[in-house]
Amino acid sequence: MGIGSWFGLGTRAQSPLPPLKAVPSSADLLGAVDRVEQLARDGQAPAMVRSRLGRVARVVRDTVPRLDTLGQGSQQAYTVMATATDYLPDAIGGYLRLPRQWADSRPVDRGKTSLMILVDQLDLLAATMDKVFDAVCRADAEALVVHGRFLQEKFGAASGGGGLALGATPRAAMPDSVTSSDEPTPLAPPSGRHG
What we know:
Elements: H1 3-6, H2 26-42, H3 47-63, H4 67-70, H5 75-96, H6 100-105, E1 107-109, E2 112-113, H7 114-155, H8 176-179
Antiparallel strand pairs: 1-2
Helix pairs in contact: 2-3, 2-5, 3-5, 3-7, 5-7
């Protein structure tokens, strides 16, 4: 018998911790985007909603394969995940649950209809996803720049960007007889019959 039992500690059963949700995979995120687009089509959301949703969905699809670039626990990676699994479905679902005529014509917040509010939300998500995609691409571009600097330090000066000398034969590929004189060598007439 320990001191904990005197105070009633250790005699109660410990409640188990709730299970943690698994981090969604790339396939889960892309599937979530597909489902919300299908929801908008099935609910016959207006064209202005579907086009804005399509813009956000395209950027999410372009970003998902590059999420590893952002690293574990990145706020930007979380934003992509939440956009695909929560923000888009909640926004579209909330709008579609309302009667269409009412949602499109009745002001509900500062003179805006539910449709106008949804459009604003989708525009905000699109701008946010553009920033995240830019950050992902910028990280890849910076890695390329760092690698180029490493190569330059390791092997010497840069080549000048790989310019093309069209129509010129490199001096190293020319025979010594051609490179030793600045005068062009006259061509011999072709052998054979002359007529």
